[in-house]
Design a protein that fits this description.
The protein has about 500 residues and is an alpha/beta fold. The chain is built from 16 helices and 27 strands.
Length: about 500
């Protein structure tokens, strides 16, 4: 632990080394490291004087990606306060639950979301309001705050030990939980990211994923700012705008999930866009179709995988950009500061080739769930974080993620991993997305059912699809039913809600 330092000091040090270097670009505007550091310090002083924001206080953010979000983050680091980045895709009652749970002293909000303000204020009546792009109703604009910042130096006892992020999990099965990440956790996350990507001050990161999620915020964005690199922000993902930015701004690194990567590959401008500036594209998902890896490789771009969760920072297990990809479907090795074990249900460590729950520990992991000691205790066993994911390692320690533990189908005494079946289905031409769930069966306990969304304009030949599955899967893994759908239910983070599909189909009898 670094006593007396905060993450804001890294930005200040980078400003000292290269004051005129661009730290952030967004919507055609640029902010140098000197300007970025000055705004952080001014905002911290203003928040301290006007709102008495200090150690342990929370400030929620509701808005698209912007430099202001990052200024707020590092101002919180300077004060020892916590930023609560809120998912603007959520319904108002979901946002109100988070506000009521976190009880932030302040809400920083974009004008486009002011229609939510009355309901959010009802959840935390004492909460003040800051307008990110204008004066919010009954509040003050962030620019007015910066203008009134006092000149006196800020005296604070903030440190690396202070929680900095309160990030709510996606809540695929119930109420979301607020995971606490300290400044130290973000520092070690940045160290791991630098090791993974070869990240340096010479890099240019393009951030298009939402920063209310640790994937958009912490895989490359905050690590780049710790290293003194340049970050270009897009308010939200748009494939055409991203391809134009790659062509004109020449970033070296970016992060995409498989769905956004697929949108890039299918865009009309993809074939003609010069991708040569990209050293790597990073992705993270239980399922990364091999077709995506190959499509980028054909254009000379390496796709590297990272495994993690909100609770792990998220960078914990990863591939290195500069090492040969000689293992298919692996997520890589544990990072510099992470230990990993594969455990059985009794907590015993399993050897190579045996599937079990992935357990992790290290200084980059979360410190617990906000005001939820029961959930915190359930998440750890002997100081190891239980991920809820099933995986196995090979003889060299490389991790292969199989599926979420709660999604495993038990059929005739055999464990079936839906993600394995989904991976094979996604290899079939004309499939856009799919989900496999287990439904009750009087003979086998459960049997797999596949729900498939065809690509637009595609007509799936189900007999050929069934033959493809039979050629690539053991007989007991074959779906007993294949259902075509227009869409799949997803939560606000884009994750398929398997529990909703399971509830919908639990009364459907298995056939065959």
């Amino acid at each position: 632990m670094m006593a007396g330092l905060t993450l804001a000091d890294f930005v200040a040090r980078n400003a000292g080394f290269a004051p005129h270097k661009v730290a952030l670009r967004c919507d055609g505007a640029a902010l140098t490291y000197a300007g970025f550091s000055a705004r952080i310090e001014s905002l911290a002083r203003a928040l301290s004087r006007r709102f008495q924001l200090g150690r342990g206080d929370r400030i929620a953010h509701l808005g698209l990606n912007s430099p202001e979000l990052l200024v707020l983050l590092y101002a919180c680091a300077r004060l020892g306060a916590m930023l609560v980045p809120m998912n603007w895709r959520l319904a108002v009652p979901e946002l109100a639950f988070m506000i009521g749970d976190a009880e932030p002293k302040l809400l920083a909000i974009e004008s486009r979301f002011l229609g939510h303000l009355q309901a959010l204020r009802a959840a935390a009546p004492a909460m003040g309001v800051i307008g990110l792009d204008d004066e919010a109703a009954g509040g003050v604009s962030i620019e007015a705050l910066l203008a009134e910042a006092p000149r006196q130096p800020l005296l604070t006892e903030a440190s690396f030990a202070d929680p900095l992020l309160l990030v709510y999990t996606s809540g695929t099965t119930g109420r979301p939980k607020g995971a606490l990440l300290t400044q130290e956790a973000l520092h070690w996350n940045a160290v791991a990211s630098a090791h993974m990507h070869g990240l340096s001050a010479a890099d240019h990161v393009l951030t298009v994923l939402p920063m209310f999620h640790v994937g958009g915020l912490n895989i490359q964005t905050t690590p780049a700012l710790q290293m003194g690199a340049t970050v270009t922000l897009h308010p939200r993902f748009a494939p055409g705008a991203m391809l134009a930015a790659i062509a004109t701004e020449r970033p070296s690194l970016t992060v995409l999930v498989p769905a956004t990567l697929q949108a890039i590959l299918e865009h009309k401008d993809f074939a003609d866009t010069d991708l040569s500036s990209l050293r790597a594209v990073t992705t993270g998902s239980i399922i990364v179709p091999e077709a995506l890896v190959e499509a980028l490789a054909e254009r000379g771009v390496r796709l590297i995988q990272v495994y993690g969760a909100t609770e792990t920072g998220p960078v914990s297990v990863y591939e290195r950009f500069d090492l040969p990809r000689d293992r298919r479907d692996t997520t890589g090795l544990p990072g510099l500061s992470v230990e990993m074990r594969i455990l059985d249900d009794a907590g015993h460590e399993l050897g190579a080739g045996l599937p079990g729950e992935i357990a992790l520990r290290g200084p980059g992991l979360f410190s617990g769930y906000w005001r939820n000691e029961e959930a915190t205790q359930a998440a750890f066993r002997d100081n190891w974080f239980l991920s809820g994911d099933i995986g196995m390692v090979d003889a060299d320690g490389y991790l292969y993620v199989r599926d979420r533990k709660k999604n495993v189908i038990i059929s005739g005494g055999e464990n079936i991993y839906p993600a394995e079946i989904e991976r094979v289905i996604l290899e079939f031409p004309g499939v856009s997305e799919c989900a496999v769930i287990g439904v009750p069966d009087p003979r086998w306990q459960e049997t797999p059912v596949a729900l498939i969304v065809p690509r637009q304009g595609a007509v799936l030949a189900l007999d050929r699809l069934e033959a493809h599955l039979a050629a690539n899967l053991a007989r007991f893994k074959l779906p007993r039913r294949i259902l075509l759908r227009d869409t799949l239910p997803r939560n606000a983070m884009g994750k398929v809600q398997h529990f909703a599909l399971k509830a919908e189909l639990s009364e459907v009898p298995a056939t065959g």
